[in-house]
Amino acid sequence: MQRFKDKVVLVTGAASGIGAATAKRFASEGAKVALVDVSDLSATASSIGQDAVLTITADVSDRSQVDRMVEETVARFRGLDVLVNNAGVYSGGDPAKISDDDWHKVIATDLDGVFFGCRAAIPHLEKTKGCIVNTASVSGTGGDWNTLPYNAAKGGVVNFTRSLAMDLGKRGIRVNSVCPSLTRTPMTEETFKDPEALEEFNARIPLGRPCEPEEVAAVIAFLASEDASFMTGANIPVDGGVSASNGQPPQ
To answer: Which residues form a coiled coil (predicted)?
Structure first.
């Protein structure tokens, strides 16, 4: 299926995990893809294996670099149809011991970066009647223990998505987000190395297992497609049923 034939898609955090899987999914459906990350993008680019790929090194917490990534994408591909704000970092711990630097890094990357990306992309998306998909998290729809900066940033992304959708609807731009639970990415690799921690997560997930990046990518692609043409302002759980629970233990 070529739902995105000749469409231009920009994906941040595309070096690994959900971002890499998302870039591959769009490319497999015919898109021209701009890959953005602070890390080496060669593995993702080579796995896509097509000429219609642009790699850009950029830190989304830096407004000027975000402006540049959008400008380079539009200059190369002559437009922009889909922006996927996926880049993110994690920090947590005892709230009384979280440093200023850790707090600001998470907020700057996970929340400011989404704002910077959207603001830079809006004029171009308005021309194409394009759309935005943000990577939020179940950590943005409910609290976690010892995860204050990440919860705050992702909670901001969730309500940012709603608010921006309201502002941009009449301009023809749809805005949605995905809210994954535990997903197999470099950010979560320590959890996957700990059998006891992984067992505890699986016990809370009704489907009994963590998510794979490709499963999130499939929902991102759906939200960006014409199949979701009347969806905007939605924060879609991709969580194996975690958010269906009221928090009580199994009987």
So the answer is: none
**Any catalytic annotation for residue 150?**
yes
Distance CA(85)–CA(248), nearest Å, equals 33
Q: Token pair of 97, please?
A: 């011991």
Domains contained in the chain, CATH given? 8-183+212-241 (3.40.50.720)
How many CA atoms lie less than 13 Å away from 238 in the CB half-sphere?
26
Catalytic-role residue among 77, 90, 150, 160: 150
**What's the CA gap between 141 and 74, in Å, rounded?**
33
pLDDT at 196: 92
Q: What is the pLDDT of residues 211-241, one digit of tens each?
A: 999 999 999 999 999 999 999 999 999 999 9
DSSP characters for 32-52?
EEEEEESS--HHHHHHH-SSS
